[in-house]
Amino acid sequence: xxxxTSLERLTYGKxxxxxxxxxxEDQIPQxxxxxxxxxxxxxxxxxxxxxxxxxxxxxxxxxxxMVRGPIGDTCWEPVYDLEQQPLQPIGPDGITVRGGMxxxxxxxxxxxxxxxxxxxxxxxxxxxxxxxxFCHEGMRRPAKWRHPDGREVAGNPADYQPPFDDLRRPYRxxxxxxLICAGWAACGRRIQNERDKAESLTSHD
Length: 205
Fold this sequence. Notes:
This protein is mainly alpha-helical. It contains seven helices and three strands. Strand 2 (about 140-145) and strand 3 (about 150-155) form a beta hairpin. The longest helix is centred in the last third of the chain and has 22 residues, at about 180-205. The relative contact order is 0.16. The model has no long low-confidence stretch (mean pLDDT about 85).
């Protein structure tokens, strides 16, 4: 399983819900259940164990590591690619839609997210549920993870970790609130147009 991102959590959550509905929860790996339910592993520990699957050394650095080994190590700290500036709070209606889709927008045809059928389905459902999706440009992410003992491991380039305000709005590294994803907005407009068209046809029947 790849790094713990919000889109991946939503996608795996759908699969878990279906399995639970079918009474097949016991067939789901515990790691996936933990991921969906929020009991996540430290991303640095996860990345380290992926790159060093034969590492079974107990270093005794923390309780998690002593109980579960390298996968339970909670000591890893992020080293961000951008320095976060102080947040510049705005009112509830102060967010705007990006002027156009960014170069690697998840909603672009052929994007890695849309190449995954399950993740594409999740993306298309977000506007239906009213779940806002923000553009990642300008937001910080862990370029690498560093352990107090000196070990380092590369971060996931898609694992953006911006700070949030009380309204759960993400902020860019320059302190400005994030922009709503243009692809998400376009998808929402398309869905609304299709609904309006269907309602118009129904009203004329």
